[in-house]
Amino acid sequence: MQFREGSTSVPGSTAGSESGPLIMVGVTCAETCLVLKARLHALRSAGFRVMLIASPGPFLDWIANKEGIATVAIPMRREIAPLRDLVSLWRIFRALRRLQPDLTEFSTPKAGLLGNLAAKWCRVPARIYMLRGLRLETLTGLRRRILLAAERIAAGCAHLVVCNSESLRVQATALQIADESKLHLIGSGSSNGVDVDRFSPGPEEVRERLGIPQHAPVIGFVGRLTRDKGVPELIDAFDQVVAAAPPARLLLVGWFDESDDSLSEELRARIDHHPSIIRTGFVADTAPYYRAMDMMVLPTWREGFPNVVLEAAATGIPVITTLSTGSRDAVLAEITGILIPAGYPQAIAEAVLRLIRHPGVRHRMGTAARAWVIDEFVNGRVLGLTVDFYGKLLEAAAAEDTTPLATVAAGD
Questions:
Q1: Spatial distance between the Cα atoms of 363 and 318, rounded to a whole number of angstroms
Q2: CA-closest candidate to residue 298, choices 286, 310, 285, 289
Q3: pLDDT in the model for residue 65
Q4: How far apart (Å, rounded) are the C-alpha atoms in residues 42 and 174?
Q5: pLDDT at site 120
Q6: What are the C-alpha distances in Å from 130 to residues 88, 134, 151, 248, 347?
Q7: Which terminus has fewer CB within 10 Å in the chain: N or C?
């Protein structure tokens, strides 16, 4: 069910407890709904009523139908757009005032700012800013200062800032986004964990379907094809890899994202015309594609906690990623994969060639990666900790506990 801002009726969730506390989850873009499915399902299964705020789009409709939750469609722009942002803020405020949630969880930069401002003005009893990453890390000058100010305002309006990884919590502290006591990590990090049954080793048919020779080493990448994800460096590195190992293939499971860090037309053409690169475009179910890879590379400049690394690890393949915020938490160096500095094609190429030339190391790392994910990041464990944590905050808020929620969380 979709609730249009301005409607005179208040919808309820079509599943879960009709009388339980109302949790409203908000993100900027409808595409982000793809990573929210398990989280929303876990909250509903625990007896909470759940509603989702996001920009309108097919992914918002998809998750509403898939999970049977009510949604609030409010257009929000990723980029800075003062007049439109004020309109979005007013619409979010009116929706919250009408629906009176018990807890709000806003994430992504624009929804985090507008949603937490509106939640504070509406005096929502428990307000969470879910920090999934820091876009400002790859910016400079005025834009960086503006985004830093926005992060501080969003955090200031929330009772708690839940960080997606330990290194993100450390970076947020260093940037003075919030006082250290307000920044919280649930478990070992990650907002979803991973379904280890869906993402698991097994037979694959992707190579044959895509025309990849069975003996060819396959280097994989999953996600948006953007500069911040390190795609330019990956393409430069792959040319070095092919020169040393001609059968190698690069499997890009992702799409050219039209964001402010989008790839140049020249690089897009280079990718699409490269004889050893396969680009799939958007893929709804990525699980079979991991099984076609010998390793995955994520040469990112910034992350919160990359889901794709956990998915690859659960599939039993090693991951090469960077020492950047968030990504360095997703790999145990030299145990489940290889950590390299961001921005160095040569480092990517050397790590890839090492794993191509040493299948025993590849197998050992892949086995260790799956075992680590099973120990720390199974989605039931990660989401169970989140449900328990939110339940504790709601109990304190319902009891009108005068103890600050940050102090309640610290005792978790």
A1: 8
A2: 310
A3: 86
A4: 32
A5: 97
A6: 19, 11, 11, 39, 32
A7: C
Phi then psi dihedrals of residue 344, to 5 deg: -125, 95
Give Cβ neighbours of residue 284 (< 8 Å, ≥ 6 apart): none
Q: Which residues contact 151 (CB under 8 A, 6 or more apart)?
A: 109, 112, 113, 134, 136, 172, 175, 177
Residue pointed to by tokens 């999970």: 67
Residue 403: per-residue pLDDT: 60
Report how far residue 348's alpha carbon sits from residue 308's, in angstroms, rounded to the nearest whole number. 18
**Predicted pLDDT at 19:** 74
Whole-number CA gyration radius for the chain = 21
CA pair distance 54, 61, nearest whole angstrom: 10
What whole-number distance in Å separates Cα of residue 17 and Cα of residue 134? 35
pTM above threshold 0.85:
yes
Token pair belonging to 353: 């060639």
Q: Given CA atoms 367, 233, 225, 138 in this order, what sign does their dihedral have?
A: positive
- Tell me the pLDDT tens digit for each residue of 146-165: 999 999 999 999 999 999 99
Q: Which of 176, 171, 54, 175 is nearest to 107 (CA)?
A: 54
Show the DSSP H helices in 187-264 as ranges: 206-210, 231-244
| Segment (H or E) for 396 | helix 379-398
> Strand order in 218-222's β-sheet?
277-279, 249-253, 218-222, 295-298, 319-322, 337-340
Instruction: Encode pLDDT of 250-282 as tens digits.
Output: 999 999 988 888 999 999 999 999 999 999 999
Angle at which helices 265-273 and 231-244 pack, to 10 degrees?
30
Cα–Cα distance for residue pair 175/169, rounded to 1 Å: 10
Q: φ and ψ at 26, to 5 degrees?
A: -130, 135
Alpha carbon distance 106, 340 (integer Å): 32
Q: φ and ψ at 216, to 5 degrees? A: -75, 130
Residues in the chain predicted with pLDDT less than 50, given as ranges, are 1-17, 402
Angle subtended by helix axes 109-121 and 141-157, to nearest 10: 40
Let me know: does 255 contact 282? Beta carbons within 8 Å: yes
Would residue 211 be called left, alpha or beta, if left means φ above 0 and alpha means ψ between -120 and 50 degrees? left
Q: Cα angle vertex 344, ends 341, 347, to 5°?
A: 75
User: Tokens 């190429």 sit at which residue?
Assistant: 349
